[in-house]
Design a protein that fits this description.
Length: 180
């Protein structure tokens, strides 16, 4: 039903799953080499499907946690990153892998990385399912990127429009009339 609101599919479920396998292997190789037991920190809520897809493929020791930060209202960045829910685990002297659904302006990741460094983390990396470099206002890149997307508002696979469409199993663009 909600799939009827989609104008075009940018990334199919199969494409996303295949890319998650590749990313998981790459991340696993890097952490095996470092010998760290990282905390995999999902930024709620958008990262949940992507994080689930990734971590089930990790064979190295890791812990998981979640944080909720918010800088969005509708489709516009309001440039104010707020912590709505902090992590449960202590991150001092730990390696952190932040899991994001999308990096857009880069403001969220800049603030989150700064916060982890201030808390005494040893190493902070980020894996993002989507990267929208055309919208960047901060100089920041993820360490691992699933796909680059054009400057369009995308939904699905965790990404919402006014809290809906997160449960779509693919990434797509909504029909223009949905925004009215
Ligand atoms: O690079 P930026 O411009 O900072 O944007 C990226 C952030 O925006 C979205 O979060 P949102 O606040 O919409 O929360 P959500 O995951 O609950 O949808 C997304 O999940 C990223 O965290
Ligand atoms: N759902 C959604 N959230 C975003 N946050 C930043 N960019 C986007 C986007 O394209 N879609």
């Amino acid at each position: 039903m909600i799939a009827q609101d989609i104008e075009k599919v940018l990334l199919s479920e199969e494409e996303i799953e295949n890319r998650c396998v590749e990313l998981a292997h790459q991340i696993e190789a890097d952490y095996k080499e470092s010998g760290d037991t990282p905390i995999i920190v999902g930024l709620l809520k958008g990262s949940v499907p992507f994080m689930a897809e990734l971590i089930k493929r990790f064979e190295f020791p890791c812990e998981i946690d979640f944080m909720s930060v918010s800088s969005y209202d509708g489709t516009e960045s309001i440039g104010d990153v707020r912590i709505l829910k902090d992590m449960d685990l202590s991150c001092k002297n730990r390696s952190i892998l932040v899991v994001e659904d999308i990096i857009d302006t880069g403001r969220t990741l800049v603030e989150v990385k700064k916060m982890f460094k201030n808390k005494g983390c040893l190493d902070v990396r980020c894996v993002t399912l989507l990267d929208k470099p055309s919208r960047r206002v901060c100089e920041i890149e993820a360490d691992y990127v699933g796909f680059e997307v054009p400057n369009e508002f995308v939904v699905g696979y965790g990404l919402d429009y006014n809290q809906k469409y997160r449960n779509l199993p693919f990434i797509g663009v909504l029909k223009p009339e949905i925004y009215q």
